Structures are given as C-alpha cells and as structure tokens.
Amino acid sequence: MSDWGQDDYNDPDTTEGVDEAAGEEPELYYGSVDEFVREYLRHVYKRRIDGRHRCWAGEWWRYDEAVIRLEALWRAWEHLRHDPATGMSVWFRDHADHHMAVLMDPEGPFARATDGEENVCKRGEPLPYVPPPPGIFQDRP
C-alpha cells in the first residue's frame, strides 16, 4: 500500500509510548494541517474538480473557512485513527464527507477558485495543491 494508505491510521508504531491512563496526548501522525492535506487528504479524495460542479483551491490555505474545516478534519482523523474497528468509518461518515462536500460545493468557500491550472484536476488525480508560504503552518510535536 502507498505511504498514505488506510492502514496508516492504526500503525502500532504511531501509538508506542502512549499512556492514555496518565492522560498523555498520543503523538500526531501528521505534524500540521498542511502535511495532512498534502500527504493524505488530497490523495484520498480524488475527484474531478472543474470549478463548475466541484471547486477546490490549490491555495486552500488562503481561505479562512477552509483552513478551519481542514484543521478540524485533521484533528478528528488524528483522534479516530486510534480506533482500529470503526475509526475511519466514523471519520468519513461524521467528518470527512460532510466537510469535503461543503468545501467542494460550487457555492462553498472555494466558489471563486474556478480558473487556473492550480484549481482543477481530472478524475483520479489528487486534489490540486500549491505549497503555502514558509512559516504559515508549523509542525506540531
């Protein structure tokens, strides 16, 4: 499976040393929302983005609502990946499918991101991505 596949959510190496009884926070798999979008989310949601039926901004980090929603998706994913039974199903059903539908809606936050190569992709391709300027998203421990 590829580096960003579904088995990553319950990789035992990512939960080593976590003492949930002591209230310690599990280590994050992705260090920032940017890394989560770049390495995982855009590869999972391979949709045709044409600016008419679905919208997506390669520069997603320029849209406040998108950043908030994507940060929420990342945090939910980080939490639910520890549930090997239904975690990813819950994440898709309760979080990803809801927020991604809002984000890609032609009337959603990316409604004006309809032109340019950085805002479109063909079916089966990862969602468009333009790296944010350095320093916007700092990796978290």
**Shape descriptor:** globular
Mean pLDDT: 87
Taking the sheet with the most strands, its summary is:
none
Instruction: Find the count of extended strands (DSSP E, 2+ residues).
Output: 0
Helix share bin: 25-40%
Report Rg: 16 Å
Strand content: under 5%
The first-to-last residue Cα distance is 26 Å
Low-confidence runs:
1-19
Structural class: mainly alpha
Topology order in helix (H) and strand (E) letters: HHH
So how many helices? 3
InterPro entries: DUF4913
Protein name: DUF4913 domain-containing protein
Question: Which descriptors apply to this entry?
Answer:
141 residues, disordered N terminus
Question: Could you please describe the fold and organization of this structure?
Answer:
By secondary structure, the chain is mainly α. The chain has a domain at 27-119. The protein contains three helices and no strands. Helix 2 (64-80) runs antiparallel to helix 3 (87-104). The longest helix has 18 residues, at 87-104. It is globular and about 45 Å long. Residues 1-19 have low confidence and may be disordered. Residues 1-24 are annotated as: Disordered.
